[in-house]
Give the backbone structure.
Amino acid sequence: MFFLYNTHMKILVIEDEHRIANYIKKGLEIKSYVVDVAYDGEEGFALAAHEKYDLLILDRMLPSMDGLEVCRKLRKEGNHIAILMLTAKTQIDEKVEGLDAGADDYLTKPFAFTELLARIRALSRR
């Protein structure tokens, strides 16, 4: 029996670089994910706090509220959404800071889309 675990999975992408955000959105929609995009931290936080999402793909460096603050605020409010931090911040201490802020996984840019998909599948199994 074949099981499509991404059917109806709803993902929020918070990414200020429109080209990257749209690339991720288009690629995920081709794979049958439902995707919303926010281009700054405040808008993304508001969506994540008030809508039901299965996964949040979160850039770390965002205007209005950075990704670490978005992550911390969601966790402080008891929001248990799976969070994949996707960022150009590649140093070990930066990765640790992201995970300690509440992210479930951390992927650095540039990234392979196939790896992003694999990490989404892994997070969806939790």
In short: Residues 50 and 126 are 22 Å apart (CA to CA).
